[in-house]
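Notes to self, Glycosyltransferase RgtA/B/C/D-like domain-containing protein:
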Amino acid sequence: MKRAGVSWINYLLPRLSDALFVALLAGLMTIAPRLLNQDGDTGRHLAVGRTILASGQIPRADIFSHTMSGQPLAPHEWLAQVLFALANQVLGLSGVTLLTALVLAAAFRLVYAEARRRSGLPLLSLLITLLGLAAASIHFLARPHIFTILFVTLWLTLLERMREGRPLSPLWLGLVMLVWANLHGAFIAGFVIWAAYLVEALWGDAKGRPFHLSPLSRTLLIGGGAALVASLLNPVGVGVWKTAFDFLSNRYLVGHTQEYLPPNFQQAAFYPFLVMVGLSVWLAGGKDAGLPLCGRLLLAGWTVMGLFSARNIPLYAVVAVPILSSALAQQVRGWRWEKIETAVAAVEDQLRGVVWIPLSVTVLILSILFVPTVREVNRFDPQVFPVAAVDWLEHNPQSGRMFNHFPWGGYLLYRLYPDYRVFIDGQTDFYGEALTREYETVITLSPGWEQVLTRYGVDWVIIPAEHTLGQALQQAAWREVYRDATAIILRR
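result:
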């Protein structure tokens, strides 16, 4: 049975983009515990989102610590935190990992689709997308930044369509930015990308009719203005911009945040990024690469930012994959490879297997709901976080203020807030350099460490079991009230 020249079997077979989505979704759910346990901030985001849902208010002053209580807070991730909390309410921590996997899979499906559209070569685009996926995977965590990875792909798609002369309203940029600026503070990356397209458009105007703006330049200027206004439509207005720039300009805080450090190319995890950098340098410098000015600017700019800070590598990857795919397509013109690609593209264009994405999502949700082992694997690792110690605290409440191990702050909020408030957690852009230095003074037993604990009225501490701070506290007559292989709790 055929209809419009398409066999019924074509309605069952997935396209490469759909197959990539399903494979990535399944793969991410297979490593779901890693999404939860590689970083200590997930718990904080869940606690904040849960608080917003319970109170119906977005906190604009600190209510989660006793050290900074009442200080102004810029909730630049509140919408992502609500989404994570909703997923947790419906499906538990498996819902959190499923949401993370869905966002990342959707992002790289869009990356592949754009790479294939620009290059016309599905296999080459798939290979470069997989390389970008490997490079970006260093920062696959259940945190709000995953939404920036997705929104960078959406943003680039809109800008590229405008550049090609498609009839798109510039207000689309404002609408996307309205959501993005409330999901994650790295929405600023959108304006960096927009600037590359604007520079190309204005350069073209200058070479053509000086002092005359082309329709593209006007569209980009209007869209950028709409996006700028939209970025201010958040609970603290311009405060989200100030928070981002204050943090990035503080060398102490940036230097003490692992993900902001440059990539260490002695580690195998960074090899895919190194390969992509090599391709970027080779293609950007080639005369026959056919790269437009905005493509060269984006490759050069994001390569520099990726080399400066590992946190930028996922964004470099999603920016670079379509550009590299398009440029490499120029290199294989006339090769036998191109004939193979043409045959694959002809077959794939006939495929209509639209059931695979909804089917895979449905199967995962049903597995979470009805297969206990799937739910049990998605948990905070008791060897990484003080799970047993918090269980003990729930049955043996401790009075007074705590001092906590920095990476555990988010988990403690997830389990114990509002009954307990932390000394510090992973939101260093809020806690700032002064408090972070005081925390470091205590944890490294630097001169004055006991005075810091006294100044903040600390009555008990929860730290790693074998940490030297625990030994020093016991020598100072603090009393051990709990210990396991992961954590120790001591009282003054």
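- The chain has two domains: 2-30+74-348, 387-491.
- Residues 205 and 345 are 36 Å apart (CA to CA).
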